[in-house]
Amino acid sequence: MISILLATYNWPQALKLCLESLATQTDHNFEIIIADDGSTESTKQVIEQFRSSTSITINHLWQEDQGFRKTIILNHAIKAAHGNYLVFLDGDCIVQPDFVARHRALAQKGYLVTGSRVLLNEKLTQELISWSHWDFQRFCSGLLGERLSGGINKYWPLKIKLGNGSWRDYKQFVWRRIKGCNMACWKADAESINGFDETMTGWGHEDADFVFRLQRHHIIRKSGSWATEVLHLFHKIHDQSNAAENARRVREKILAKAM
Questions:
Q1: Can you identify the CATH homologous superfamily of domain 2-258?
Q2: pLDDT tens digits, 152-193
Q3: Among 120, 107, 92, which Cα is nearest to 224's?
Q4: pTM, rounded to two decimals
């Protein structure tokens, strides 16, 4: 079984769309573990309402809001997962109906997958949030127009899906295209490196650190592009005051391995 580890913080309108999109999956063999970094009651209400309308198993993990501590709550989610394969997703992302199926098709022993995203602009984001419920077919009906007007930054990866193959494999660690909002690995592999580095607090690069340490542990990175694209809702940039320090720490680990 697959466990979707869904990170969220105080954006219940986006989380509602994300959960509704997970309810439309063609592959139903998954659970959702919500890794909540201190959201208020309105997020809990969205989760409870969704839980009452679905047969999907949902586990809501919550920790007190003490700043950006995503690494800590994700490690709790890893431990709580019943699935042997973990797909990491953020609550500001909407998934396509074949999202779980595509990740399952790419899952391979000894590999991790770094997925891809399509960026939505502010106008389109606000329009989707105003919908009473998520409707993928309705979204797709205006897709080309949204690409031409700048509503989305990619079109063809939503239309063309490619299968597995060695062309997806990275030969070495590269920082590019690591997105914590869409990646996957085996639970045993995540546990073997003790999950995320909990000393990395504040926004930025905890996902790159996680991927680097998995690759250092002889796990091969595979691209999930042209298969797993999520729709990333527009939001203002988070506080990045810790990003430079987190990046420095990742670079130190990379340098230490090279020596």
A1: Spore Coat Polysaccharide Biosynthesis Protein SpsA; Chain A (3.90.550.10)
A2: 999 999 999 999 999 999 999 998 899 999 999 999 999 999
A3: 107
A4: 0.94
